[in-house]
Amino acid sequence: MFIFTVKHCPDGYTPFTEACYKIFTDEKQYTDAQTHCNNEGGHLAMPKDHATSSLLSYLARQGNPGVHYYIGLTADGNTWKWSDGSELVGFSHWAENEPNVASEECVVLLKGSNYQWADVQCSNSYGFIC
């Protein structure tokens, strides 16, 4: 098995497999966080596997452990979709009793549960990971 890594990431970004990641502790609503990432040339992070999820949890603890962080996962009706349009299948990292509210359509890494996933209202302001 070969794992290809990104050789060059913009300043402040951490390379991992084929992507670059950066924690932003300034709190924004989901759409503003997504726009910020787009303006940086990327998108909200999509931890589609255990290794990426573990890295993002590590970065979140290093950034500001008192902040929840948006990731690029939202509800589309009864289906969870990544910001690239693909459906959530296989790996997930939901905190206990999550997702739990139909009106909460965005997902954060939850600070109080070792950065497992929790559904939240998209109008809430949180940190984010590009």
TrEMBL record:
<protein>
    <recommendedName>
        <fullName>C-type lectin domain-containing protein</fullName>
    </recommendedName>
</protein>
<dbReference type="InterPro" id="IPR016186">
    <property type="entry name" value="C-type_lectin-like/link_sf"/>
</dbReference>
<dbReference type="InterPro" id="IPR018378">
    <property type="entry name" value="C-type_lectin_CS"/>
</dbReference>
<dbReference type="InterPro" id="IPR050801">
    <property type="entry name" value="Ca-Dep_Lectins_ImmuneDev"/>
</dbReference>
<feature type="domain" description="C-type lectin">
    <location>
        <begin position="16"/>
        <end position="130"/>
    </location>
</feature>
<dbReference type="Pfam" id="PF00059">
    <property type="entry name" value="Lectin_C"/>
</dbReference>
<dbReference type="InterPro" id="IPR016187">
    <property type="entry name" value="CTDL_fold"/>
</dbReference>
<keyword id="KW-1015">Disulfide bond</keyword>
<dbReference type="InterPro" id="IPR001304">
    <property type="entry name" value="C-type_lectin-like"/>
</dbReference>
